[in-house]
Amino acid sequence: MKIKLVILGIICAVLLYFSYVGLGASSDKIIIQTNADEEAIAAMETALDHHGYKGQYIVQPQSTSELGGKIMAEGKSIDADIVTQASYYLESAQKEHHMFVPIHSTMNQHELKQYPDYMSPILGNMGSLFVNTKVLKEKHLPVPKSIKDLTKPEYKNEISFPNIMDSSTGWLLLQGVISEYGDKEGQQIIKKLIVNAGPHLESSGSGPLKKVQSGEAAVGAGLRNQAIDAEKDGEPIKYIDPSEGNFSLTEAAAVVKKAARNNKKQRKWLK
């Protein structure tokens, strides 16, 4: 629900601003470039359409690394009005390009952690392991207690996790390994995990759960909330908090500063 409210608030403000300054024609739709997964994008579109903005925006999904690279390379020249991305990418881009306008949102005042005024947090993603209990039983595989357990030979071609080069969710796994085992041993563990994943190294954060749900893999590493939802829906999915701990990251929305637009008025509408 929170992602719907925050995204809706930001996008509605931008749409109102564009209408105010005479934009909003069919060729001037709001471009939203996002690294969000299918579930989050569906929430955005449902909220916007429900509030009368259907047809006034275009959502362009991209991988975390692709969008991050684009933001860093293009800065304010990026062909987007709004971006939603991992907060560390937004911070780096703002430091390099000063490309986002301040967002004076009342929602930010209720955040437990204070974020820069140019971004509004929309998601707090926490990682975990999850298993298909039916597949584990059929293949006589033990329930893993740690990420390191997944490097064992019995899990060869039975694990799935996101490629850290494509997905911010993959960084949650990497953080857990490096934090617990250090750089040297951690690198060896990651290499073994990649070998054991085989064809199940995914480009999206939701990919591993799909592999585990279908039974193509017995164990996955991904987003904790998605595994919990699958378990609540009665699927043979069980989430596991690994001994290395669960790490989290924040994704946020930001409005791109455009030279051709009156940012003073834009900031006014964003209030």
TrEMBL record:
It comes from the Bacteria. Keywords: Signal. One of its GO terms (molecular function) is thiamine binding. Transmembrane segments: none annotated. GO terms for biological process: thiamine transport. The keyword Transmembrane helix does not apply. SUPFAM superfamilies: Periplasmic binding protein-like II. GO terms for cellular component: outer membrane-bounded periplasmic space. This is Extracellular solute-binding protein. It comes from Staphylococcus carnosus (strain TM300).
